[in-house]
């Protein structure tokens, strides 16, 4: 299941900076957020989660099937076998097709320092001021 990230309150940020909805500066804001979010997205060893992304002017969508689970930060398991995933040397990790997983109530363990669930909020807490400065500089150069 994919996950879409929309920073809140983007409407407040856009109003403060004078950004046109879905205009060039809005796209620049989205791309800048994506750039800084990378260091907070789990899976730093492969980078697949952070590379399998669709960027729109107002939205970042992580397309990997496991993106939702990583974003929520809780282990979801197969209801019959009580496992998060199955493993085969030939195929890698997989889940039974068409079976909806259930929340186990256990938190995921993230192995790369600084990464974790809700990486958009982690990024904004750590890099929000820097994002605003970059977007303001972009706007000051005449793009809205």
Q: What does this protein look like?
A:
It is a single chain. The chain contains 5 helices and 7 strands; from the N terminus they run E-H-H-H-E-E-H-E-E-E-E-H. It is an alpha+beta fold. The strands form 3 sheets. The chain has a 3-stranded antiparallel beta sheet with strand order 1-3-2. Strand 5 (86-88) and strand 6 (92-94) form a beta hairpin. Helix 2 (24-37) crosses helix 5. The two termini are 34 Å apart. The model has no long low-confidence stretch (mean pLDDT 88).
Salient structural properties:
single chain; 144 residues; alpha+beta; 3-stranded antiparallel sheet; two-stranded antiparallel ribbon; 5 helices; 38% helix
Q: What kind of sheet is the major sheet?
A: 3 strands, antiparallel
- Molecular shape: elongated
Beta-strand share of residues: 15-25%
> How many extended strands?
7
Number of helices: 5
Structure classification:
alpha+beta
N/C terminus separation: 34 Å
State the assembly state of the protein chains.
single chain
**Overall average residue pLDDT:** 88
Low-pLDDT segments: none
Please bin the fraction of helical residues.
Answer: 25-40%
Q: Widest sheet: strand order?
A: 1-3-2
Q: Return Rg in Å.
A: 18 Å
Helix-strand topology string: EHHHEEHEEEEH
Provide a concise account of the structure shown:
The protein is of the alpha+beta class and 144 residues long. Helices cover 38% and strands 19% of the residues.
Topology:
Layout: E1 3-5, H1 10-17, H2 24-37, H3 48-51, E2 53-56, E3 59-62, H4 67-72, E4 74-77, E5 86-88, E6 92-94, E7 102-107, H5 119-140
Antiparallel strand pairs: 1-3, 2-3, 4-7, 5-6
Helix pairs in contact: 2-5
